[in-house]
Automatic annotation (TrEMBL), chain A:
Designated name of the protein: Gluconate 2-dehydrogenase subunit 3 family protein
Keywords tagged on the record: Membrane, Transmembrane, Transmembrane helix
Superkingdom as given in the UniProt entry: Bacteria
Pfam family, one: Gluconate_2-dh3
Residue stretches spanning the membrane: 21-38
Automatic annotation (TrEMBL), chain B:
Species this protein is from: Neobacillus rhizophilus
Keyword Cell inner membrane part of the UniProt annotation: no
Family designation: Belongs to the GMC oxidoreductase family.
Name of the protein this chain belongs to: GMC family oxidoreductase
Domain Glucose-methanol-choline oxidoreductase C-terminal, chain residue ranges per copy: 437-555
GO terms for MF: flavin adenine dinucleotide binding; oxidoreductase activity, acting on CH-OH group of donors
Residue span of region Disordered: 161-181
SUPFAM superfamilies the UniProt entry points to: FAD-linked reductases, C-terminal domain (SSF54373), FAD/NAD(P)-binding domain (SSF51905)
């Protein structure tokens, strides 16, 4: 319990710190920016600080701005929403997963062929753009925000679920006119990254508590199935890669 | 100026399945062999954290780094070829063991029909059955001639299997080294359904061992654990036959095999029509090095086997306008999309478990095992149900008509996660005059060398075959009791963005006639006696099976050819 109190105090004092220092930096009024560093959800739960077991040091940003993070969190939640089966993308940490992926090799397309010349090709020839995945997210999320403000008069994350779905569908079906990138290309990237975040090993920051796996009775990383391969379906308690570290 | 090293008896370009087999056979005979491998060393201990779908299956940890080298592709000669910037249709091996590390291990023999496809098609259906542009030809070898080498490769791997009951299959000189894999409930359902339909199912020949096994070289390996992380992953048990745990240690033990990793070969050196060695770059230092050798063997997979010949001005490049020349000719692939998915409402399967070559298959619609008189294609494909381990990121099928995201997608994909089975055809691929490999005029690799260019698309032959195999697959699923079946209705154009198979073939084809083939039936170049090229590049067309059983057999035959050449010189046929 002593631990818990200490953590609570730290969270609170950090929040106070941000509040108190957030008004001016070098004479510029930047309170808005610093204020938005405090995740909204947490702010509303002032009287219900997270229990210590929920403290996840992996849940901080490596690449996204807070605004990009919020849009991603809202959009991925529509792609894989919370329902009776269990948590959606938001609670599974998918936006953190995507943030962390963009910060590394994948975000830089480090293992893709990125030599010029660039020509538009046939669909069957695959992606031929010069934009890297982090550029695609920067631009795509901004376009999603602009489009929301144009058609919904609000930021994407402030729209209702149905309205958000409509916006995403317009991207999916290339109904948005963009000169910067392919709306459906961005949507497909977002969709596949969402599924990766839901179902990859929790070591990457998504699939929190292996809940993605639990919802579909996927056992994660097991050493062997030789004993069950001939038998009818059975549930097996899932295990993540971390379990191998104890060997 | 490149630094010149002392001469070796044999230099190998690439140390995957073919390189490993040649190395083990020749070093046992006392030859000094140098194996140049562009990638890194690999060993079983590397796979401690291997059950990681994201890292290995989606971020392609074990595969060739495309930022350094890729291929370019166009559907036909009228359009501009563009680089494959990201992985899709096939995956390229890299590092010791090559693709042999992360393959599934489905290890077949081709049909007797395959090796004499042109003669047998004409004999039965007449010349007109073969479309004008279709460039099928006999392989210059028969099944019976190749049989001893199949047997050898199967014994090296310890292939687990049972006799193929179809009379169209070739005769075996010996039984499988180990019994078939265990049967899962889904496999039993397929077996019963196929038998009800009067078809001839048999357990898929598997390089994942059904039981522990000691091979003729004295290598012992443990049994497969059905871990479900096989294709695209290395085996943490050494149960999957892979060059690193079979042929490479045998070669090393002789003391005659020197492996140099991080060694990227750029050219085959030659004077007149004799190869003198190879030029390579040590990628850790950037130094250019010349390795002279009496015999050069290309074992660098289809694309680099062809690319190195063309870049080194060896052999006669293929000209699609005239159909003459041979290097790059008869590129073929596979028809993998003729399949069906069955959804079951009240049955759940442990399909998260499985092994790379756990499956059941039938050949009733493969080769010329059925009458083609009224069909718009020749050859056919095997039809199988495999249980290779359904990992959750890549396996989220939903019945047709379900949205691809959102509430309903989540619900349905969770519901069916353990309630669907796929049955699919592995369709053969016939060569056409205008399908070929050559050097790309624009795009370069990290060393400034031209990339290989693929010109390939599906033809009527493939479209008809795909729909045929999809219908047969759906029939089997129906008999298995699926509540809802989605199957392919039409094969679109060849699309490089979706994974189909790493079964690329052709480009350095074998044959009996030097004017229409690049190598003889010992895989010796017709034009350069001391240069051997081996792999699926030798296939004159691709059959309705995975290729590596035949690739392994050809590698054993090639090793024998090299030994003959060393003794007699000249052409060994
Ligand atoms: C995901 C996957 C699954 C597969 N599953 C099956 C299956 O179930 N059944 C089946 O029959 N087949 C399967 N295959 C195909 C099988 O792996 C190949 O047929 C087999 O490995 C080919 O052997 P190879 O020696 O020709 O090429 P590889 O094994 O790929 O070896 C070629 C080696 O050459 C090296 N190399 C290339 N260029 C150079 C250069 N310039 N300099 C130096 N080194 C070079 C590469 O790094 C590589 O290590 C699969 C392939 C993949 C990718
Ligand atoms: S399925 Fe079997 S052979 Fe394949 S990696 Fe797992 S244990 Fe090895």
């Amino acid at each position: 319990m002593a631990e818990e109190n200490k953590e609570k105090q730290e969270t609170l004092s950090r929040r106070r710190f941000l509040r108190n220092t957030g008004f001016t930096v070098g004479g510029l009024a930047v309170g808005g920016i610093l204020g938005s560093l405090v995740p909204r959800g947490k702010d509303d739960n002032k009287n219900n600080p997270p229990a210590p077991q929920d403290q996840d040091f992996n849940q901080a940003l490596m690449y996204f701005t807070p605004e990009q993070f919020r849009i991603t969190e809202a959009a991925t939640e529509r792609i894989f929403p919370e329902d009776d089966n269990g948590p959606g993308a938001k609670a599974l940490g998918v936006a953190y997963f995507i943030d962390h992926q963009l910060a590394g090799d994948w975000g830089f397309n480090a293992r893709d062929y990125m030599q010029s010349p660039f020509f538009p090709g046939e669909k069957v020839q695959g992606y031929q753009g010069r934009l890297k995945r982090r550029d695609i997210f920067d631009i795509g999320l901004r376009e999603l925000q602009n489009y929301s403000n144009t058609v919904g008069k609000k930021n994407f994350e402030e729209l209702s679920g149905d309205e958000q779905d409509k916006i995403l569908k317009d991207f999916e079906e290339d109904k948005v006119n963009l000169t910067t990138l392919s709306p459906s290309g961005f949507f497909q990237l977002l969709r596949s990254a969402t599924l990766e975040g839901v179902y990859s090993d929790p070591l990457y920051g998504g699939n929190k508590n292996m809940d993605g796996w639990k919802m579909r009775n996927y056992p994660g990383s097991q050493m062997a199935y030789a004993e069950i391969i001939e038998k009818d379906f059975q549930k097996i308690k899932p295990q993540s890669l971390q379990s191998h570290m104890k060997h | 100026m490149a630094r010149k090293l002392p001469k070796a008896d044999v230099v190998l370009v690439g140390v995957g399945w073919t390189g490993g087999i040649i190395a083990s056979e020749l070093t046992k005979k006392g030859l000094k062999v140098v194996g140049l491998e562009r990638g890194k060393e690999r060993k079983t201990e590397d796979y401690f954290m291997v059950h990681d779908e994201l890292r290995y299956a989606l971020r392609y940890d074990l595969f060739q780094d495309l930022s350094k080298e890729t291929i370019t592709f166009r559907g036909n000669e009228r359009i501009r070829a563009l680089p494959m910037r990201q992985y899709g249709s096939f995956l390229l091996g890299d590092g010791l063991g090559g693709s042999g590390v992360h393959w599934n291990g489905q290890t077949y023999r081709f049909l007797p029909y395959d090796f004499e496809i042109r003669s047998k098609t004409i004999e039965k259906y007449g010349q007109n059955k073969i479309p004008a542009e279709m460039s099928i030809q006999d392989w210059g070898i028969t099944y019976d001639q190749l049989e001893p080498y199949y047997d050898k490769f199967e014994k090296t791997c310890g292939i687990s299997g049972e006799e193929n009951p179809h009379p169209g299959a070739g005769k075996r000189s010996d039984k499988f080294p180990t019994p078939p894999m265990k049967k899962s409930p889904a496999i039993k359902m397929f077996e019963t359904a196929a038998k009800n339909l009067k078809l001839n199912p048999y357990m898929m020949p598997s390089a994942n061992l059904s039981e522990s096994y000691k091979n003729p070289d004295g290598i012992s390996r443990a049994a497969c654990q059905y871990c479900g992380y096989c294709e695209r992953f290395g085996c943490e048990y050494g149960a999957k036959a892979d060059p690193v745990v079979t042929v490479i240690p045998v070669a090393k033990k002789t003391g005659n095999f020197e492996i140099r990793t991080h060694s990227h070969v750029r050219r085959i050196l030659h004077t007149g029509n004799k190869a003198t060695g190879v030029l390579y770059v040590d990628t850790t230092t950037g130094e250019e090095i010349e390795q002279p050798a009496d015999i050069v063997v290309l074992t660098s997979y289809v694309f680099n086997n062809v690319r190195l010949l063309l870049m080194s001005d060896l052999g006669r490049p293929y000209d699609p306008a005239t159909g003459t020349g041979v290097i790059g000719k008869n590129y073929a692939y596979q028809v993998m999309k003729g399949n069906a998915v069955g959804f079951f409402n009240d049955k759940e399967f442990s399909t998260f478990a499985g092994a790379g070559s756990l499956g059941i298959v039938l050949d009733d619609y493969n080769g010329d095992n059925f009458d083609h008189s009224n069909l718009g294609f020749i050859h056919g494909g095997s039809i199988s149900l495999t249980q290779t381990g359904l990992r959750p990121i890549q396996n989220n099928p939903v019945p047709k008509g379900t949205p691809a995201w959102g509430k309903e997608f989540k619900q349905q994909s969770l519901k069916y996660a353990n309630r669907f089975l796929s049955v699919g055809g592995q369709g053969s691929s016939m060569p056409f005059k205008h399908h070929y490999l050559d050097l790309d005029p624009t795009y370069k690799d990290a060393f400034g060398d031209p990339l290989i260019r693929i010109t390939f698309d599906f033809e009527d032959q493939d479209r008809n075959l795909a729909v045929f195999l999809a219908e047969k697959s759906a029939q089997i699923l129906k008999e298995m009791g699926a509540n809802h079946i989605d199957s392919l209705k039409e094969l679109g154009p060849y699309d490089i963005t979706t994974y189909q198979s790493t079964h690329n073939t052709g480009g350095v084809i074998m044959g009996a006639d030097p004017s229409t083939s690049a190598v003889n039936n010992y895989l010796q170049m017709w034009d350069v006696d001391n240069l051997f090229v081996v792999g699926a590049a030798n296939f004159a067309h691709n059959s309705g099976y995975n290729p590596t059983g035949t690739v392994g057999a050809l590698a054993y035959r090639c090793a024998e050819g090299i030994d003959k050449y060393r003794q007699t010189g000249g052409q060994v046929v």
